Amino acid sequence: MIDKNGVPAERVLDEIRRLRVGDRPVHGGRLFAYVYDPGVGGLDELGAAAYAESAHVNGLDPTAFPSLLAMENWLVGAAGGLLGGGPGSAAPDVVGSVTSGGTESLILAVKAARDARPELTAPRIVVPASGHAAFAKAAHLLRVGLDTVPVDPVTLRPSVADMAAAIGPQTVLVACSAPSYAHGVVDPVAGIAQVAAAAGVRCHVDACFGGWTLPYLRRLGVPVPPFDFTVDGVTSISVDLHKYAYAPKGVSVLLHRDPTLRSPQYFAYADWPGYTMVNPVLASTRSGGPIAAAYATLRHLGDDGYLRLAATTRDAVGTLAAAVRGVDGLRLMAEPEATVVCFTSTDPALDLFVLVDELTARGWHTQPQLRYADLPVSVHLTVTASVAPRVAEFGPDLADAVAAARQAGPVELSADLVALAGSLTPEALTPDLIGGLAAGLGLGAGPPDRMAVVNTLLDAAPAALRERLLVEFVGLLQRPTW
Ligand SMILES: Cc1ncc(COP(=O)(O)O)c(C=O)c1O
Hints:
- The chain is of the alpha/beta class.
- The protein is built from 16 helices and 13 strands.
- Helix 8 (214-219) links the parallel strand 5 and strand 6 (236-240).
């Protein structure tokens, strides 16, 4: 409840610091998901100061706050220039918008594609199965059909022929990733863009994750296939600045090859008694804070800074991948092409969920990925430059964690739980049942230290049941504090 007389500033800040103690460490190079840390001293302070300068500026009206418009236009220019657009390029008319994150950029790419084709009664999008879940969210929110195209279990990419075959008369957008989040592989963008263009359909490249690193990796000699506006048929690209541009959270850029393509992304409304509203993005009132922080980060790190950080990250990826290759019973899902290391187990006695817990116990926070179609359970590492100083410690810890996981053996669910997972339908899940299940799994006050049992249970459940379980579980966590 709100305090009657308020709380002194220092005490509030202290409260926040104490709350933060339970969080995963955002610095230190041992967290392989959620955060993107360049390990550059002073950058946090710069971002915070820039954020504070513009926190109360409102992106609702660019004419009232030209500072924000100027910074947004600069960010779009920086992203467009990096991704094959701008004066003198093959895509001189590139325009864009600054959004709050990758999910919003993808929702808006789908909205623009849908609203450009008002004559279609049941618009659909074609997305590789490896495409980010945000495409499914966009399809759901915008009531657009979702056609997913399977990926090859070896290359982890969709084939161009399968993508072409999935395009139908109601298709408004074909999407691909550069690279995919789960495995970090770049889809065959040129081929996909070509078949989309031949069908007269827009092609979006989701470069939210790696769009800021791929151009630098290419400059360092890594073989990066064409994926940006230099590819004919690519109509839009998303790139998240809060990922590998290392800006504080809340900033992504959605680029379109020209203003006509962007226009249906906007929403305007003049038919009410208040101010006439025009929103390029989903939010109406928007804080200038994240935009100013991103502007400061990009300006400060500069082109050379990003090149250096990409080189450091590439080296760290190489060391991590070598560590995985060095362990009997582990296999890389794909040779790293960008900044993801993803591996699976080839030994039934080596349970990856147990291994993830063992790594956590040794201070390495990795991300388990449940099995999907014919893809096995895997472990995902998003690698950032901050890992470099610690990377040599990973190999020995991995070997140690593997030995411990082998010794512990695979998780065996109790017969009751297996029967429950097999018999439950999503509709049958009541809040009471979930409460009982969460308590039984030790999830009462949030995730326990060891998640292997929970992950095994989720892995055993079909996707629809997983979704429902997670919705109910997070609903249990999100209860007001009085
Ligand atoms: C390829 C890709 N697209 C989209 C997203 C969604 O981004 P956000 O979490 O910023 O909404 C992500 C996030 O990891 C991603 O990796």
